[in-house]
Amino acid sequence: MNAQQLTASRRDKDAFMKDHPQSPLSPEQQAAFDGLPYYDYNPALDLTVRVDPVEGEHEIAIETSSGDVRRYERYGRFTFTVDGQTVTLTIYEAPHGYFLPFADANAGVETYGGGRYLEPEELPGGLFHVDFNQAYNPFCAYSDGWSCPIPPAENRLAVAIRAGEKLPQVKWMEVE
Asked: Cβ neighbours of residue 153 under 8 Å, at least 6 residues apart?
C-alpha cells in the first residue's frame, strides 16, 4: 500500500470510528471524535517476507484482555530488520485468516500497551505481505467492553515499530 492508499484507508477508518453504529466508541466519544493518531507512512516497514513453517507445537492458547483464552495455530515465523535490529514474529491462523498480534518497545508509551494487530496477506511461494503501516489497535484500546487477544511473549519486540496506529491519548478518549 502506498502513502496515498494508506491515507484513504485511514480516512475510511476514521469515518467508521466516528459514525458507524458498530464503532467501539461511546456515542459521546463519537461526537467528540476528531481522528485517530497515526505514525507517518514508513515504506521501510511495508514488507514482503518469507515465512518459515513452525516446527513442534502448533497450537497456542492466547489470553485475552478479559481473561478468556483463545486458541490459535502457529502458521510460521518470519525475520526482518528494523532500526538495525533483527527480530522474529509468528503469524497465526485464525478462523478469519492470518493474524499477527504484536507489541513493540513503545507499547504503553507511543503505542497501545495491549499490542496491535495485522492481517498478513499470503502471497505465492511461501511469502507474505506484512505492512506495519496498517497496524491497528484492537477495540479494547477504546473501550473496556471488548475481549482482545494479548500478543504472546513470542510476539513482543524490544524494538519500536513506528508505523500504523498510535496510542489514543486524545481528548475524545476522556469523554464519557
From this structure: none
pTM of the model: 0.90
Distance (Å, whole) CA 89 – CA 48: 14
pLDDT tens-digit profile of 18-72? 999 999 988 888 888 888 999 999 999 999 999 999 887 789 999 999 889 999 9
Determine contact, residues 79/158, Cβ cutoff 8 Å: no
Place of cell 473501550: 143
Instruction: Determine the Cα angle at 145 with ends 62 and 163, to 5°.
Output: 60
Taking the C-alpha atoms of residue 151 and residue 62, their distance in angstroms, rounded to an integer, is 7
Nearest to 23 by CA among 135, 125, 137: 137
